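Researcher: I'm comparing several assemblies side by side, and this is the next one on my list. It has 376 residues spread over two chains. Same procedure as the others: predict the full complex and return the structure.
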Amino acid sequence: MRDEHIISILESAPPALLGESELEAIRAHTVHCSECRRAYEAAQISALLLRERALETIEPSPFFQTRVMAALRERQASNETPALGRLWKATGALVSSMAATVAALAVLTIFAPVSQPSAGTQEEIASAFNSYSAEEVLFDQNELPEDQMSYEQVLTTIYEAGEDR
Amino acid sequence: MRSNDYEQTPELELARAARGGDEQAFAEIVRRYSPRVFKFASRFFRQRSLVEEAAQEVFLKAFTQLDAFEGRGSMEGWLTRITTNTCLNLLRSARRRPELTVSDLTEDESTWLDESQADAAAERHQSSERSRVAADLAGRVLETMSPDDQLVLTLVDGEEMPIKEVAEMTGWTQSKVKVQAFRARRRMRKAVEQLLAHKKKSPDGSLESAR
């Protein structure tokens, strides 16, 4: 035992918890082994440091309970906000998609190619929008060509149509 | 019900009331067990602000896990396990300090090492000032080690807590605690040995000469 290095004994337990036989082996060996003596010295200092460290305790402050309860309320409140957050996100998505649609329509309106309608087409369009023009009413009602109507007939028809409305 | 009204309430009933949303019942849990939580958190951290932060986190976690407390064990044990896990996680997320060298030591720490080395075998009386210096130095050496090493060294070697109890607190097997302690002890011893060797190299062993 005297010639066996004692490092494994030092690492098996803190020096304070070593048995008498183990301590005796350490003492016998460290007399002539400087390496193990240094290791034993360091192990003793380590143990001393750890014991002193263990004695140090921080006590809770008188406000600790209040602090925890405030933190708890805060956390509970922040857990409730995700529901609102989800709603806000959904609304945001809807609004942004609507805005994108409006923007796309605006772009199409401004930049879409517009073909110039011919004179004949213009007349067709005008007549389509003006389906209740005086001439049409006259033609529909009398079914007479324009050159066969007298001036008086035209006026009478117009006034009658006005009275009917 | 005010917090004081719960003073005599058994812990299981207290947990049930807190679970049911009774704020005062939970306030009583905090009041009753905060010294124990602080004691354990201060094994991991030395700054008051860090200990308070860790302890607060412990109670907030405990509140969300109240359903898991069924009263099979003590509430103190349950909270100690939460404290250990919380502190280990906090330590793991923090950056580890690089190796401690003689030049990092304060003058007091350097003197403490000299004096302790002179009579390492003797149970030298530690004045409160010397104790503080030793605790500072221990903290600095521990900070260079892994969170798991710090845990076993402070609990097994510092507190002299039984391996079984440490295994229960951490959820590790007893053999893992033993192996971890064995290795951590070696790393701590080597760190101290290195400091002592460097101090011996300097002519007068003083901090200035080491620098």
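Model: For your comparison table: Chain B has ten helices and no strands.
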